[in-house]
Amino acid sequence: MAGRILCAADTQQILRVFIMAGQSNMEGADAQANRIDEHPIFKGAGASQSDVLFTSLSFQETSGSTLWRPLAPGESFGPEITFARKLKRSGMDSIAIIKSAVGGTTVAFDWNPTAPTNGQNLYPRTLKLIRESLQDLDRRGRKYQLEGVLWHQGENDMLDPRLNRQYAQGLTELIARLRQDLQAPRLQWFIGEISEKGIWGMDNRRNLAILREQQEVVLKADPLLRWVPTSHLAFEVMDSGQPHYHFGTQGQLQLGEAFANAYLDTVGKPVAVRKDNFDSNTKTQSKKRRIRVFVLAGQRTMEGEDAFVAQIPQIPGFAQFSQPRNDILFRYSLGGGIQSSRAWEPLGPVDKLGNFGPELSLGAHLRTKLSSKDSIAVVKFTHSGAQAPDWSPDGSPETRRNLYPKFSKFIGEAMSDLARQGYECALEGVFWHTGENDTYFTPYQRNYADGMRRLIAQVRLDLKTQNLQWFISEQHPTAIWKNVADINGALRTLARNEAGVFMVPTSHLPYERTHFGTKGTLLLGEEYAKAYSQQRRDERP
Asked: Pairing with 245, which of 195, 203, 373, 432 sits 20 to 30 Å away (CA)?
């Protein structure tokens, strides 16, 4: 069942067959096909892909037979659309996808191979779907190879304390049984992360951590498994201001590419890494030249969600910002370390998701205001799926998301590297955008300002810069996030009472429901630069 034995000459004709399985976020809940073109780098991704074979559990059971059809989204869609698109763009032309995903299901019951009468009987139904689909390929004379299982599931097991600590055992048994029944002992599995950006990052934080621990047990025991991070991907927000249960349209488009990137890495076609680093031996023009270092940190808005590089040329006065600039150094860690610079780079767009944050306009505006004798470096550290406890110097209850030590170390190492190169470093300020994920959950919202006070104090202490200025931008008053007025008010009180802390107003900036969007993000960066200049009153000679 693993496919026909092929000689080397037949390699290009192999049909690569992928199995997609899981629950609602693999199914594609709340992803709307009519919204695909709203996201620039995915424009046109909703078109039918006639060269990709697709079948699914729902299609089989409504049509009465296993019939392959061209891949195309219905009213909703899952990661299959951009997964196939990404593979084809990498040069893989023969692709088939078998999908079995049903929302609200568990490994403990619905997917359990040893308890087929429990729950929705998904294991026997899925096995039947796979076998009949492959038999149909045999009848057609198509040569194929099972390439892997793309798996996103676990939310319902996580929520039940009776089930979440059994997850590793259940998933291990499921993987082993499917390999056995398909006669594919080396079948790879790609395990998608349950996003920390959803509602579970708040009121089910510990349960989410337990599930992740269980997944790690499985991953460490099986070298044929691959982890697919997702907490840096876009995630839907309800109109009530509550983080959603599902990725939504943009997140599903990104999820498909995340799975594709993981697969491509296993077959020796990793995603290209940006290589326009500065030569560390030639950057410094003179010994002890001063360099002003600016830090940006935070979550969704600071990382750049819903700000698209492809739209920058459409914003009058900002078109040039879509290109790297060699007069500003840049070092970054995005998505909690999912994407990091290997060395200093020219300031410019770097996010593989096609997004950008306020750093582009901040750096450009500062360059026009500061002395040409001084160099500028921008250091960015963000995790769009984090919440306030993750940034706490006191430590996060889940050490896996304990960001503070990584944050302070990242800044310190950047400063040390510049000093080694002969620069005289001046840490000028930290620019922070209020945590969107913290507004909905009342315990986080009530303690946010106090948490910021401790964070600011510890950064100043650890970096030995007691007068380090912090510029905190407020949540936009029209945002759908809950408790915006309360959290903004608490931070304004903090700024009035804490020396060197300044609030950056945003109510006059354009805003798009949950984030500032492309134009708003560019203008936010300028507001940061203006706030800094007002305090320092630096003038360019």
From this structure: 432
